[in-house]
Design a protein that fits this description.
6 helices; two-stranded antiparallel ribbon; 11 strands; alpha/beta; Rossmann fold; 7-stranded mixed beta sheet
Length: about 260
């Protein structure tokens, strides 16, 4: 397992797409983007290796919109099945206590296509019905931790379609779990990457077409990760969702002011 907190610069990419929203180690350093105008809303961006480039692209996009308190935490090879590798429940508690974010953007799931070990030591194979129930509870625990820690908005970034058929079946399965859990949490939104990064949701594609009919490659050569263009495209959609939420929060505060 490799844990990273880092900052890099990426140039922006603006492409109009629709976003479907359905309502173990400590970080070594904080990664803070410099905004043109200071917005005090704290944002935590965290997840597995797919969040590495995506998180950096999102940090840059949010910084251009004036957000200044941005923290990125990524752990390569981690997930919710192997909590012995990195216990995401404990990690979320630690991160939230340290950086006190109002918003959390999280991506977890591709590494979880494996048997799951329960608290009592039982091993459940991933094709067993009980696997989904145990996994659902772990997702709920993540959301409960964030809600209990004062997080006002959770953007759960879904896993994109995968080239490998077996991994794609896993993605479809956990995507259904994510959607079902998110419905019970009004403060959470589900970012459907399958609709954003695939020409046909549920089917892997390496590229999308721009408005001029030219292909834009959005996936890495491994058929799993996003490339720079795909990360920037998805980051733009997530940043739009955060900004929309922020506007609603501001409007609500204005109406409450006597």
């Amino acid at each position: 397992m490799k844990i990273m907190i880092r900052k890099m610069a990426f140039a922006g990419l603006t492409i109009a797409l629709s976003l479907t929203l359905v309502s173990a180690a400590q970080p070594k350093a904080l990664s803070s983007a410099t905004p043109p105008a200071d917005n005090p809303t704290g944002i935590l961006i965290c997840g597995d290796s797919l969040m590495k480039i995506l998180g950096i692209a999102l940090e840059r996009d949010l910084a251009r919109r004036g957000y200044s308190r941005i923290t990125i935490f990524t752990s390569i090879g981690s997930g919710l099945v192997r909590l012995d590798v990195l216990n995401w429940h404990d990690q979320l508690r630690s991160l939230i206590e340290r950086v006190t974010p109002e918003v959390v953007v999280i991506h977890i799931g591709p590494n979880d296509n494996q048997p799951i070990k329960t608290a009592d030591g039982a091993i459940i194979q991933q094709d067993a019905p009980e696997w989904a129930g145990e996994y659902l509870q772990r997702v709920k625990t993540c959301l409960d931790i964030m809600r209990g820690g004062g997080v006002k908005l959770v953007v759960w970034v879904g896993v994109p379609d995968m080239r490998d058929p077996k991994l794609q079946a896993h993605v479809d399965r956990i995507s259904r779990i994510f959607r079902s859990v998110i419905l019970d949490y009004p403060s959470a939104q589900y970012c459907d990457t399958q609709r954003i990064l695939s020409r046909e949701p549920g089917k892997f594609t390496m590229y999308l077409m721009d408005h001029d009919g030219r292909p834009i490659y959005v996936r890495g050569s491994d058929g799993m990760h996003l490339n720079r263009a795909g990360s920037e495209m998805l980051a733009h959609e997530v940043a739009d969702a955060i900004e929309k939420w922020q506007c609603l929060q501001n409007d609500s505060s204005d109406h409450e002011t006597p």
